[in-house]
Amino acid sequence: MNDITDLKADADLILSSSKSLKMSAQNGSISEYKVSSSQMLGIRVIKDGAVGISYTEAMDKDSLKFMVHQALQNAQSNEANPNEKILDLNGSLSDVASYPEVEVDINVKTKKALELESEVKARDSRVTAVPYNSYSENEFESLYLTSKGRFTNYNDKTYSITSSALLADQGKKAIYYDYCLAHTFNELQWSKVVETSLFHARNILGAKTLPTGKYHVRFSTDSLKDLIECFSNFYSAKSAMDKVNPWASKIGEQVISPDITLEDQPLYSDAYRTSLFDSEGVKRRALTMIKDGTLKSFLHNSVTANHFKTETTGHASRGASSSLNVSGTHFVVSGSNKRPLPPKYMEVIQMDGLHSGANRVTGNFSVAVKGYLWENGQKIMTFGNITLSGNLIELLKNVEVVGEKMEASTDLSFFSVPLMFNDLSIAGS
Amino acid sequence: MQLLQSHIAQDIIGHGLSMGADFVEIYIEKTQNEGFVFKNSRAEDTQSGIIFGIGIRLIYGEQALYGYTNSTDRDELLRITTLLGSRIGKETKTLASVNFEKLIYPKVPTITDREVDAKYKLSFLKKIDERLRADQKVSQVMLNYSKKKQLIEVYNSEGLSATEERPYIRLFHQIVMKDGNLQTEASFGPGAIGGWEFMENLKINENCEMLLKQANTTLYAPPCPAGKMPVIIDNGFGGVIFHEACGHLLETTSVEKKASVFWDKLGEKIAHSALSAVDDGTISGSWGSLSIDDEGMPTQKTNLIENGVLKRFISDRMGEIKTGHKRTGSARRQSYKFAPASRMRNTYIEKGPHELAELIASVANGLYAKKMGGGSVNPATGEFNFSVQEAYLIKDGKITTPVKGATLIGTGPDVMTKISMVGKNLELMAGMCGSVSGSIPTTVGQPCIKVDEILVGGEA
């Protein structure tokens, strides 16, 4: 940092480091065991108004000097951007996780990891394999330092387990998998992961197609999270600045149903991990993006805020090797004007192909879905081999609130009241 | 340039063997990345960096243990080896010694590089930007230029010492087009192993016209009708259907877990007799090519399917240990942070006898998928889905109305038997493939093909 300031440049540094352990089972023994430790140092230099980024995983003195040299050279290749500056913040912020950890013997972990396969196999003779199963521990730390004197420190530790059930019967195959995240080993829900995988796989084995037509659709909270987050450019000031946000000129306009409010809540109490500051060292706060259907604000970092002549909302995101972007923390969908459930609707529990079947500029999407058909409060069949198509903007205009209790995604990063989407196109038989 | 001193590699491998491992391997990687995005008619996000790390793999029978670190320190590498070996708890043996022999192998030709300064690169991309913005409806152009040089070394307990330098270059084009409330995008991402000459050889005008035509077509197109129908999938990126619907199911990574519907079908007819397909790591300059794989084995051309019959799986060392299917030089990984796995390289359907017009003429009511988008597959069930970026309806053997928003879904075993006609116009296209060992450069390809029936997702 001293080398940079000597050149009358500004900079910020990110040092990220991680340690992990992962094991998975196959045919009753641990088939994969992986341990790791790695770190990366990244620098963003602003010299004469132009930005250059460089990073390294080699930490010897020569590599660090080369990194600084590269960042300065990259800055020379760019035109000056008056909107991008290192923020004039100083002082320290710390967001260090502290959980009541109990030492767990590696043999206990191994035994439990093996059970992620054996328990699934033991509970149903139609299980042919448990292709995805794993136990993981990940420790992550990120240090941030700017030439203006801002220092932040973030760390976290996560335990996770995954299991799956691949069932075969009478020429049909079905698979489902589930996972669980926890801050401590003892919070992991081993049985839930096994039982959920088996429960849905058994049902999907008997799935049938549905006639092509329009249906009312209720997404599982995980599926709804995937859908809403897939189109995160709609809420991003960076996308608006880059002209790839269809809502770029819609601030103050009603863009979706007046029954719906969408917020980003970094400190949401039910979230897996709260977030105290962003990647520019700005303290986070809750932000209402859409209030009663009206677009109120985008997620901003300091660059987008300068561009749009507003203030950062504390949503800067940047990794050691990437440029400055914006991202949300925990999206919370709330609503009003609760309606009754329609007599017949689809409940989508699995959605495949969103990464390729979604057009982030238009909002159009088309995905393969599986789930349950409900009629008069009864689950009457499991469906599969169908596609669901729509447009996110139209979908959010034609949505009704059908419950009050907030529901959470499995990773506790997305929260929503129960919603019903009307007249979505299904292609099936 | 040596990334890890061979005497340290000897010590680590010897230590792993002394802990009872059947096989020990060290993978060292140093990758120099550079790139920028040309956006808003200027360079943004210029960045460069170095990825460096070492992966150590110990194999005991059918168990693989893997660890990695950024450190070249002997003691740290020994610590990781001990940590891995101690999990198995085998009796330690006398410290074994290994003598390395440098692997000599045929090099897959790469496209020539030459030094070009930043100003020249920017002026080159500016020309493309201007050409695309000549259409007044284009509201944004994003040209993502990336180049990397990956240097790898592999040492193993069989005495292998191998090294390869792999240069990659790619230019991803994306445009956004707007007319009133209508908006659409189109993209294209050619890439190769090699250097700047690849950029100079790009057919800029042709590529720009293709992108603009695609965007202009989809901007005004009505939604695609839904339902089962015959589909003609054109060449090039159309090959993503074989990659997803069949290729992933032929990787021993899935086969070894019986998580592939084809795991027990070797020698059986799994596709229409019109279809033959290969996975070839040796194509000159091609984005998915390698001279040696990430286990240090020279790559090869692997005939996967001949006239509909499954001939070979795509295999790596663990795949061979677990399934008996011989290695095919297909062990690949994104970086040292991943253990190698059997992965595709340049995978394509071979040429057939037909013209595109013959395929179109054979369809009464169906869809012509001129350009495919991405897709995904669940190898365990064979279920896949793909998006179509540019599509037209076919009526009475003729291409008619453009449509947007189509997706294709089905299962690999089913669709492979329904590819009944294969064209002559084979073309390969660069892409990125994500799977167990990370995101890697792969090439997909095919001539035009006819699928007799597939479920098309669209508007009901």
What would you call the shape of chain B? globular
Q: What's the CATH class of the largest domain in chain A, please? A: Alpha Beta
Query: How many individual β-strands of chain B?
Result: 23
Q: How many E strands of chain A?
A: 22
- Tally of helical runs of chain B: 10
The CATH superfamily of the largest domain in chain A turns out to be PmbA/TldD superfamily
Question: What is the structure about, briefly put?
Answer:
Helix content of chain A is 20%, strand content 41%. Chain A has 9 helices and 22 strands. Chain A is an alpha+beta fold.
Describe it for me?
The complex is a heterodimer of chains A (429) and B (460). In chain A, strands 1, 2, 3, 4, 5, 6, 7 and 8 form an 8-stranded mixed sheet that branches. A 6-stranded mixed sheet of chain A has the order 12-11-10-15-21-20, with helices on one face. A 5-stranded mixed beta barrel of chain A has the order 9-16-17-18-22. Chain A folds into 3 domains: 2-205, PmbA/TldD fold; 213-228 and 337-427, no CATH class; 233-335, no CATH class. The radius of gyration of chain A is 24 Å and the shape is globular. The longest helix of chain A has 18 residues, at 106-123. Chain A has helices at 2-6, 61-77, 106-123, 190-205, 221-230, 237-241, 302-307, 354-357, 392-397; strands at residues 10-26, 29-47, 50-56, 91-96, 127-129, 134-146, 150-169, 172-182, 213-219, 260-264, 287-291, 294-295, 316-317, 325-326, 331-335, 344-352, 364-375, 378-391, 399-401, 407-408, 414-416, 419-427. Chain A is an alpha+beta fold and 429 residues long. With 460 residues, chain B is α+β, with helices and mostly antiparallel strands. In chain B, strands 1, 2, 3, 4, 5, 6, 7 and 8 form an 8-stranded mixed sheet that branches. A 6-stranded mixed sheet of chain B has the order 12-11-10-15-22-21. A 5-stranded mixed β-barrel of chain B has the order 9-16-17-19-23. The termini of chain B are far apart. At the A-B interface, strand 2, strand 3, helix 2, strand 8 and helix 8 of A face strand 1, strand 2, strand 3, helix 2 and strand 5 of B.
